[in-house]
Structure formats: structure tokens, C-alpha cells
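Structure, all two chains, one model.
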Amino acid sequence: MKNTKSSRKHMEKTASFLIEKAKKAGCKQISAKISKNRSNKVAYRDGKWEEIKGSTTYGANVKLYIDGKYASHSTSDLKKESLEKFIKEAVTLTRYLEKDKDRHLPSPDLYPKSKPGNLQIFDNNIDSLDLAKRKKIAKIAGDSARSHGGKTLISASSGFGDNYSEYLMVNSNGFTGFEKRTSFYLYAGLSIMDPAGGRPSDYAVSSTRYLADLTKAPQIGKLAAERTTSRLGARKIKSGKLPVIIENRAARRVMAELLSPLSARAFHSKQSCFDKSIGKQIASSKLQLFDNPLLTKGLGTGYFDSEGIGAKKLSIIKNGKLDNIYVDTYYGTKINMDVTTGDRSNIMVQSGKHDLEALLQKLNNGILITHFNGGNSNSTTGDFSHGIKGFLIKNGKRFQPIKELNIADNHKTFWKKIQFIGNDPYQPSSYRIPSIMIGPISVAGK
Amino acid sequence: MKIPSETTKKNVADNRQKQINGVSRRNFLQLSAGATALGVGTSLLGCKNKQKNTTVTSPDNIEKNTGIKMEKLESFGISTAIATKLMAAALSTGGDYCDLYFQRKKSMWLSLEDNSVNKAYTNIDMGVGIRVLKGMQTGYAFSESFDEKSLLSAAKIAASVANSTPGKIPQAFKASTFKKYYPDYPVCSQLNPNKKLKIIKNLEDKIFKKDKRIKKVKVYYSDSEEEVFIMDSQGRSGYDYRPMASLITSCVAENNNRREANYYRTATRKGPQLFTSAKIDDIANQAVNRTVILFDSIAGPVGEMEVVLGPGSSGILLHEAIGHGMEADFARKKITIYTDKLNEKVAPEFVNIYDDGCLDNMRGSINMDDEGNNSQKTQLVENGIFKTFMHDKLSARHFGVKPTGNGRRQSFRHMPLPRMRNTYMTSGPHKPEDIIKSVKKGIYAQTFTNGQVMIGAGDFTFYVKTGYLIEDGKITTPVKDVNIIGNGPEVLADIKMVGNDSKLDDGSWTCGKGGQSVPVGLGIPTVKVGKITVGGTAQ
């Protein structure tokens, strides 16, 4: 997709058409979004090609504000005659709703004044990829995984994928934003026979905005194999209260649950265990948590949010105190709070001094959590409970892989128990969370 | 799950009784409704013709012979001549099989918050997925544009999986016929939106009236109508019309500075007609009861103990503990813990488990699967013996068996995979009260939000939203949200008692696998498991 300019023009034309039709139908305010995505994927397993996939998708969405009423409508059918019918039906349905005085587009003051410098979320090199190159990268990762899989290997798989997207937003009260992004990913996974029972599996993945930044394919295969073979002989341990380290690649699950009650929407709905906690200590003073949509090369990076609000760094937890929450236009109006943003972008925790191995030394005896398995969190009460697997740590070393365990605590107390924060923020995710040592907490086993 | 008697037809109930061996007549009636309404009305496409049993259409004389089945294709703006050209392009590099999957789906959501139905969302989704198989390899592409250039470009991508001489194109497409398990007319879109608003407001009103401690109520109504037309290089074609309606409500209650929240979700292929005044009353009761009971809840226990699963939504145990492990793609790759267990005893002899796409109006029912095969009632475990995996075309080809009608996909953007439909256990020999009495110390799990499984290790979890302690044979104090973790084969083998009260759950369950979501159903009688790990905090 070398000619992105012409796509933008076409997208602008479609957005103008939608806005014009909606205005004619009586809409006071309109937000129109047009998106285009191209993606490719190859998957390889045990020396053979398993899957080759490619596609281009288009989509349009309009948010309509008419007669004090609001609704959002999407379609993937962008033919002109279809769009005309789409708007007509969208307006008709919106008029059936009840009035809502708090619904309106964001204040124009919040729109970005200009596009920031190069955020490096688009890589021209995507055009250099063809099927042969995609296959080559995936094959190297898969063959590497296989070669390191050991005698009990059952199956080794790998895959490479790339995405290109363009996104245009036009708000009728004075905002037009356009962004184009690329992303690339490479993974390898293995399944092995465990003489002690079961067929454990694990994986490694790299995901980046720039092709050249991907972890090299042989390393991905090797890491996946090391992780999987280290699972041999996993067992269940006795219940108890133990300190834990949540490895960086697993930390997203509990961090997302911490963020869930930290929004104006949750506050207004009475579904937040932190709705009276702004300015109060909700975590250890070691925790600095922020949302940074302007992170260079970030997987959650963009210069405007899904309402068109200009991106800026937002401090969520500062020295363990709740600093800010996610406030979108609607719920901000409802609970009379200044709008920040309703969207999570790159979730970042300020790193500590120690790498994972040093954290294991600090832990001495406890559990390293490498994966969560199911479970959930209650954002109203803060209670959470999750299945886990990982390693039993004795004297600072991985003593034994463990499985079929559960941890439980409450978010109101859990984060206050942070002991150390690692220096290894997880790169292949918009949640750039380092490993975190925390606890002791309740571990359920035998 | 309770459906008012006026919508329950005896003949449907009797059919159901035949369908679900061992499920009690009472629960059966609770499930059944409305099959007599099938075949009435007009299709979403405006086609009023009755479907013929069989239509044979040659690509050469398609213009002369526009059978109803091909009208379904043409409603997408595609002639059979174009479709055949597309298939030829897809098979041009030597693929040995190709299918074209046309899909159109119209969905709407309405939501109530702060006493007002003040937000709606609609979505129109349409496209075609092109799949080419070469042995066990898959080439896949899709297009949302139906112009010839875009379609042929997608076919070329799918074709890139193969690299030899062109495959054969069928000379005719024989339309398959399927039994119908849900309405085949626009049950959702024909209902005026005002009536949908009324359903929502009525539910909110009933919830607030039931308990003064309820402070916030949200209600989400959604419905969709989906059409699928599939044609393949074996000369088969098939069409399915799939409606779905769901109602979800969440409640927040406050009492003495304590706040609790819970919800109720229900879904059906019957459409919004299910949401009668009596049904709404039932939903309101359940939502309120589930919320206010939490005021009495204490922290859940920790460690291994006996667990009794209540009838209905505890079917999540089957879905997570064994269902996914019995999907044949995992067996083909040899990565499921059940890979070598076919025809082995995996549970006590009073355990019988089915995966069934043929239950009237159930969320997981399908008339045909997404590869054009008949839906089936498939017995996975018979008297404790593991009888079959669930297959799609690829796994059936690998194992040299017939597909079981489990090839499903989220949309035209995805290739089919073996997926569950409605997975349930039939009734066993024990009385539910005797099961409770037999437990000295354990928990009784009644409702659930979600579950997960690690296919290879077999470890599965499910999250209990409503549960109680069992002490000395009696259900006592409610416990807070708690996760349960076990090992699939071990738990299945450790089933001690199975109640005679099998019940299907009417929840809006959605199963995720390989990045694809599909609607499913589940059910189970009261079941006691010898020991599972309960992940509470009360140590």
C-alpha cells in the first residue's frame, strides 16, 4: 500500500458525504470515522505451512447527536448507495431513543492544536514484505523452536504477521485527524510431552511498530523452547500465604483490573471500589503509574483518542496515591469532572532498579507467576481471584514448575503490598509493565 | 429458566424430550418454545418463496435456473457465474478444496442507564471468506467489497497456499437442506424499536420495585440477524438464517455502607418474543436476588475440597474441563491432553455428555455449520467412555472420519475451527438433596461469569459469581466471588454423584478460541466432584 495519500482523500470524501447526509437529516453534531486495514499472516507448524491469510478491510462509523438523542452506527459496506441507506436508517433508529442532555461532542479546546512530531508508528518497510519474506521469517523462528524443543517435543509452531492501518476522524465541531500505523509480530510456541503427565506448552512473541525492531527469529524460537521445556514436571503445591513476583509478560491481567474501576464511567455507575480515593493512598509509594499516548513506537500510541481529544501523558498513580482517572466527555459531564481521556493508550509503570533474576533473589522463597489462567475481578468490591502457573522459588532460584494454583486478594490492599518493581517493562504490548514483587497473598493449592 | 406456559407447545416439548435423553421434562419445558412459528413470514432478503428441498444448478445455465438457493447468493450481488470464476481462481494453483462463505449480519444494541434508554449502536457487516485447502494447509482471504477485482484479488491470496496444476471446478451446485431449530424469518427487525424500549424499561422498573437497596440499574438489549450462504468445490451449497436476541442487566445495591453488584444475562435464537412479561419478571427476580444475597457473603475458603455444582450454568465445567480438549484440531496437532484417550474410560459410567447443535432456540444451536454440514447431536462421552472428538473438515480429513457439524467461525473474516455448540450432561441417578447431604465441608457453586482452559496441561478454571458454603450436609453462608481451578481429566474422573435434574442454561455464553468468538450454550444436572481447588482468601 504505497499510495496512502489517495486513500486519505477517498476517506475524507466518504466522511464528508456521511456528515452532509446526517446534517441534512437533522443531526446537530456528528462524528465520522473511516478506517482501512490491511493484514497478512503466515503460520508454520512442524516443517509445513499451516495457514496463509491476507485481507483488506474498510469500516465507517458515525456518532449522531440529533434532537438531544445519541447513537453510534457502523458499517463495512462503503458503497455510496449503501451509505445513503445506512445514514437514513441510523437517523431513524436514533430518533426512537430517549433524550440525554449530557451527550455532546468534546469541547473544541480539547482537540490537538497540531500534529506532534514523528511518533514513529508507521514503517515504510512494510512495502518490502512479500509472501516469500514473510514465510522466511516464520520458518526460521519455527525451525529454531523445533531444534531447541528436546526429545519430548510434540509440536512446534510459529507465525509472522503484519498490519497496516489508516484512520480518519472528522468531528463536526471542528476536528479532523488522520493517522496511519504499521505493526509487525512474530511468535513461536511449543507443546511437549511431560512424562509426569500433561502436554505443557508455552510461547514467545515479539510485536513492534517497526519491522527492524522485531526480536530476531532464531531468538524467538529458542526462547519459546526454553520456556516450554522448563515446564516439565510441573506440580501442585500446598495452600498458603506467599510473596509472589508477577513476571512482566503476565502483569497486564491484574494491571488492567486495577485500571477498570479508575474511570468516570465506573465512578458514575457505582462500580468502582476507588470512587472515594482520589488523592488517597491506594498502592505502595513505590508505584508510579501513567498513561502515555505519545510514547515513541508505542503499540498504544496515537495523537488523538477515540473522541478526537488531543493526546497527553496522564499520571494515574503517583507515589502510590490516586492522581487522575480516565474521564471521557460523557461521564465527565455526568459527574462534573474535567475531561482527561476515556481511552487507555500505553500503560506504563516507572521501572525500579532490579532485573528479574535480582528480584528472585529478593523474593528468596515464594512464587514466580508466569501465566494467569482465567479468574476475574469485581470492580465494585475490588475482590479478585485467578488461576496461575509459574515456578516455586527457593533460595532465590526456580526450584520447581508449579501448576493448578489460584491466587486471590483485593485491589484495595493488594497494590499496597508491592515490595519491588523490576526494570524489565514488557515490550510486545501496550501495557509496558515490568515484573513486580508483591505480597504475601493467598495462594490456593492442595 | 422459566418460560410462560402460553408460549410452550406440547409437541415441541415432546420433540425436545426425544432430543435430550435424560433431561427432566420440567427443565425441558422451561427451555422449549416457538418452533411452531418456524417457516412463517418473509426473509430478510425479501424473498417470499418457499425453499425447495433440493436445487441443482449448473454454472453454465445459471441464468436460466435461478433456484431459491442461488437467489440467496444473488442477494449478495453475486451471480453463480462470478462465484464459479472465483472458485476457479482460488483453485488455479492446485488447491484440492475451496469454499466461499458469504455472510451478512445486521446487529443492534440498546442500552439503559440512569432511567433512560439513551444510547444505541448498530452494525452492518457483510463480506465473503475464501478458503483453499491443500492437504492439511489452508489459504484464507476475505473481501468486504463484492466487485470482481477485489474478489479475484482475495482468491489469489487464498490460492497462494498451493503451487501446482489447477484443481477441478464443480459442474453443478447441489443445495443442501437442513432441519430448522429456530425461526427463519426476521424476528428481530420486524419488532418495532419502541417495543424493544418497552422491554428494557419494563425490566428496569421491575428491578427497582423489587428491592429498595438497588441503587443503579443498567440494561442492555441486543439482537442480530445473520445470513450465511456457503458453496464449495464439491458442488455443495447451503444457506442458514440465524437470529439472536439477548438481554443483560446489571444491578448495584447499597446497604449499611456496603456495596455489591451482580448481573443476569440471557440469550436466545427465538428473538425478542422470548422476553414476555413473565420472563422479564423472572430476569428481574434473579438479578436482584443474586445482588442482594452478596450482602451476607463472606470470603471464600482456600484449597482442595468437595464442590457441588448447581444445575444449569455449571455446564461451564464441561465446556472448559473437557469440551475444548475434545476439539479435534488440538488432537490433530497432538497438543490436547485427550489426544490418546479415545474409547477410554474418562468418567464414571453414569456420566453422559453431548455437544448438540439441534436444540430449539438455544444460543449455541445452528441449522448448518459454517462448512455447510448438517448440525448434529454428538455424544462425546457415553456411559463414561470418550466416544468422539468434535470435528471440522480439516480434522475429519486428517482422521478419516465424517465431520460432526462443529466447523464454526465468527464471521467471514475467519477460517472455520472445531467449536462447541450446546454442551451438556444428561441426568444421572442421584437426588440433588442427597448430593448436598453427602458433603461435610465444601462449596455449592450456582452461577458463573467466565472460565478458561490450558489445553495441553488440562488445567481449567471457572469463576463463581454466586456460591455458598456447604457445612455438615447443608447449604449455609454465601461466599464472595471466587475462582475454582482443577485439571480436566482428573476432575471428570473424580465426579462422585450426578443429579437427576439436568437443566440447560439460558445465559448469553460466548466462547473464544483462536481470536474468534462464537455463541454457545451449556447445561448440567447437580454434580458433585470429589475435590477441586477453591481460590478464596479465608485461610
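Residues 240-444 of chain A form one domain.
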